[in-house]
């Protein structure tokens, strides 16, 4: 799965595309595994760059390959 590198995605859209929960995406952001931007003050809006999603998915694929080897 590839995301458009220059586009910004909402957390809900990413969760739906990856067939995971919104909380899973927020955990990835909070842990630093997935880069995201907070726009605005207070609660604000979280947007995830497509380039960050592609990097995250690449890292997930590498992790899965390493587990299969071990």
Summarize the structure in words:
The protein is globular and about 35 Å long. The protein is α+β, with helices and mostly antiparallel strands. The chain contains three helices and three strands; from the N terminus they run E-H-H-E-E-H. It has helices at 11-18, 22-31, 50-69; strands at 8-10, 37-39, 45-49. Helices cover 54% and strands 16% of the residues. The chain has a three-stranded antiparallel beta sheet. The two termini are 25 Å apart. Helix 1 crosses helix 2 (22-31).
Q: Can you give keywords for this protein?
A:
54% helix, 3 strands, 3-stranded antiparallel beta sheet, alpha+beta, 16% strand, single chain
Q: What is the compact description of this entry?
A:
The protein has 3 helices and 3 strands, in the order βααββα. The protein has about 70 residues and is α+β, with helices and mostly antiparallel strands.
Please give the share of residues in helix. Answer: 40-55%
Strand order, biggest sheet?
1-3-2
User: Which structural class do you get from the secondary structure elements?
Assistant: alpha+beta
Q: What characterizes the major β-sheet?
A: 3 strands, antiparallel
Query: How many β strands by DSSP?
Result: 3
What's the SSE blueprint?
Layout: E1 8-10, H1 11-18, H2 22-31, E2 37-39, E3 45-49, H3 50-69
Antiparallel strand pairs: 1-3, 2-3
